[in-house]
Design a protein that fits this description.
5 helices; 7 strands
Length: 191
Amino acid sequence: MESITVKEMRELEEKAFARGATVLELMERAGEECAHLIETKLGTGKRIVIFCGPGNNGGDGFVCARYLSKNNDVSLIIPIEPKTEAAKENLRKAQEAGIGVVESIGEADVVIDALLGIGAKGPLRGPIKDACRSINSSKAYKISIDVPTGTDADRGESDSDAVKPDATICIHAPKTGQAGELWIADIGLSG
C-alpha cells in the first residue's frame, strides 16, 4: 500500500466531516479498530500501558484503552493533560470505564504510543521526550498509533529519541517514516 501525505490525510478527514462524520466518531472508529488489530495480532489477557498525549492521537489512545480493557489489564500514562475537546471527552469515558492512570510502565506486556500524531513537527522536548525514552527503554512489545512519536509523517525524519515501535497501526494508510511492522486500520475514510 502506498503512503499518503499529511495533507492527503487531512483532505480525507475533511471529506468525512462533509459527509456528516464528527471528530468524536472518527476517533471512536480509530480507537476501536486499533484495539481490534492489537487483539487480533497479539491475543488477549495482556498487561497494556497506553501513553496518551494532549491531542487527538491521545484521544485515539483513550478510545483504544476502553476497547482493550474488556479483555486485558489496561492502564494509562498521561504526560500532558488533553487539550482538544475530543481527547478530554474520551479521557473522561476511559476513566468512567475504570481505567486507571499510572506513573510507570511496570511489568507491561504491551506499550502503546498515542502521544503525538501526524501533525507533530520539530524536536521532542519536555514530558513527551521523557515519555518516548521510557517507551524505548521498555522490554514490552511497542506499538505506535498512526505514526511513531518523534517522526515527521511527511519527511520521515526522526528525532533521536523518537519511539522505535515493533509495529505501527497506520490509520487509513501508511505515512512516510513509519516504523516496525505496519498494520492498517480502516476507519471508513475511503467513501
